[in-house]
Amino acid sequence: MSLAKQALSAYRGALRATSIAFNNDVAMLQAARTQIKTKMALEVDPDMPDKSVEERIKHLNDVSLFLRRNIVQGRKEGDEENKYFLNIHEDTELGDNDDIKKKKGKNSFGGEMASGGCCGGGEIKMNERRG
Amino acid sequence: MHYKMLRLAYSMRNVTKVARAVRPVPAARMQPVRFMNGVKFYSSTSSLTKEDVLARSISVLNSFELKVPSSSIGMETEFIKDLGMDSLDYNDVLVALEEEFDVVFDDNVANEIKSVGECVDYILKNYTPAEESLDPEIR
To answer: What is the pLDDT of residues B40-52, one digit of tens each?
Structure first.
């Protein structure tokens, strides 16, 4: 694929990502798309003047991925204070915290590595709070 | 909900236009912004005709700044040559059409598309009818 086609493909990907991340927020959607388009049209991006076209395409693809996976908008609903509804969608990255629960290997001193926090060696018990 | 108000405002301002159209133009199109969210305001149909797709594609195009009147847009109309768009503009159109018809233009196809007709044909080939049991407002 030529560079121009790669750039346009990344552009389409970014537009699609904005509609996933900001589906019900027209103002944000519009602002994000305008920003993306403005930067696409620039020969040199003043925010990253040293980046090559290839690097800028990769950057845009990374932005798209970030928008899809790591942006979750919240919307306050009703009169209840501090209660927000989160727009978690199928692309949202949902960590299971497995790496925190897992016991780490031995350190260079032959001892067990701390599995987290300041207590050292202790296994962290994950207690889910429900309520 | 705000979109219902828009829909009302739209229907009042465009009574004649709606009457002429094959189906009411989605309310989202009346806003002066180029992109709207993916919410659809039309009812789902189990099949689409070429005329349907063309009419709806033209109403999508209407939400963009066009150098020609939308009445002159047909299957042969080319985005860059006839509508005076640049490559970013017509990719905006492609994504807006994707949102309108719930299809995704394959990269290889999208890079080669030049005319409205090519879009219409692609949409007809790749459109999956919405499940009847699903409320389109919820989708």
So the answer is: 545 444 578 999 9
Active-site annotation holds for B86: yes
Answer whether A10's CB lies under 8 Å from A64's CB: yes
CA B128, CA A1: separation in Å to the nearest integer?
28
The sign of the torsion formed by the CA atoms of A58, A61, A65, A66 equals positive
Q: Are B31 and B2 in contact (CB under 8 A)?
A: no
Distance from CA of A1 to the nearest CA of B (A): 9
The DSSP element (H or E) to which A74 belongs, if any, is strand A74-76
Q: Name the nearest CA neighbour of B110 among B86, B85, B93, B125.
A: B93
Q: Cα–Cα distance between B118 and B108 in angstroms, integer?
A: 13
Which of A4, A12, A41 shows the shortest C-beta gap to B110? A12
For residues A49 and A52, give the distance between their C-alpha atoms in angstroms, rounded to a whole number: 8
Tally of CB atoms within 10 A around A49: 7
Q: Which residue has the tokens 């990769």?
A: A58
Whole-number pLDDT of residue A98? 78
Other beta carbons within 10 angstroms of residue B113's beta carbon come to 20
What is the reported pTM? 0.68
Judge: B99–A37 Cβ closer than 8 Å, yes or no. no
ipTM reported for the complex, 2 dp:
0.71
What's the one-letter identity of residue A41? A
> Using the 8-state DSSP alphabet, how is residue B29 labeled?
G
